[in-house]
Design goal:
mainly alpha, Amino acid/polyamine transporter I, binds phenylalanine
Amino acid sequence: MRQRAAFQSRFGFYMAAIGSAVGLGTLWRFPYVTGVNGGGAFVLLYIFFVAAIGLPALICELMLGKLTRFNIVGAFKYKPWVGTEKKWSWFGLLGIIASFVVLSYYTVVSGWVIHFVIQGIMGRFTEPNSQPGNIIDQLTVRGYLQVLLASVHLIITTSIVARGVQNGIEKTSRIFMPILFVIMIFLLVHSLFLPGAPEALRFLFYPDFAKLTGSAVIEALGHALFTLSLGFGAMIAYGSYLRAEVKLPSEAVLVAGIDTVLALCTGVIIFPIVFTAGVDSGTGPALLFKTMPVIFGTLPLGYWVGLAFFVCLYFAALSSSIALFEGLVAYLMDQRNLKRPQAAGVVSGVSFILALISAFSGSSFKNIRIGERGLLEIIDQVIINWMLPVVTLGIILFVATKVPEDVKKKEFVDETSLVTVRLYLTWLSAVKYLVPVLLVILFLVQVIIAFL
Ligand code: PHE
């Protein structure tokens, strides 16, 4: 077998994989898409897609990485199974393109978070006459400042990934993720005591299906894939660093489960503040950045809580950026024979150039709009709602049809136990029938909505 880096411990893998899943998608995107799409029914659908499509697909991605010990493109070309059927690797290339584009806009939004950390240190959230929304409104029109902040984020990410799987990725995740969990629990308890809490809980957990539109269904699917980091190859890369003895279903359930619980917790943290402060729940991408500073102005110890929140948001953004970045580095190292530092440099350079587009989306490019949506949102929609389902479908079909049955079966805990065999068969029929059929139907619905 080829030599390859590996996670040092299971805990390290968990923290890195959960770090990849829990990111801006979970803490920033989930609340705002839920707000825009009307709450409860959307949340329910999102949970359904995570369980029915995301979880089986996550097992596929980790499995593909673990068995081939390659990146997303290399895994599709893995010789022992399929000879040289090159056509599959187009799915891989699509995943690489999606990763570059998402990394670039992710970098810009992570830059926003750095800005909020600095504002927190300067005490801006607790100034008596500070208006909710001022900080973000002023930031999104300042392109150069966003480029500067994004560069800082890229330098931090690059220097961590360049240090390798164990010394960079694993070490960072082991420190930051537990801190993030503790801060979130604290914020959750605080939000539950706000006057807007009952209305928020009703909004989040009472499904009103009349509010569900066709595009909300597509959004729920796209978000379920995005939040589990599926369709980019990041989880394939992380799977390729797993040791042979690790069994997959339990790892996937834990990663998907914790990510979903944290997304719901984020909803329970944000929406009581939204309703207490009277901010419009359908605000869109600025939602989190508008509501959170409000709470810090009114809290005892608001200065410290505010700072802690944005530091924690930054850890989440960083660990996800690292995963996206690593998927690309693995590709350049395996397929293009670059050394890790060179590969990190290339990813960083390309992402920087692409990030300029997002950074100027609120200023120089602000007239590029489709309806209500600005450039940043358009990029987000194209990648998440259109590309991710296609790449995920490719990965699932490949695992279902090309990976030999006995090889797949071995990845499930114990071949002699009845429960495990049943689990394996359920997963297999999901990836052979249910998931591909659902993905194709939803894709067609999307085409119909977009073009008719
Ligand atoms: N899952 C991350 C989030 O929710 C996004 C991400 C996608 C991270 C792909 C890594 C790879 O923010």
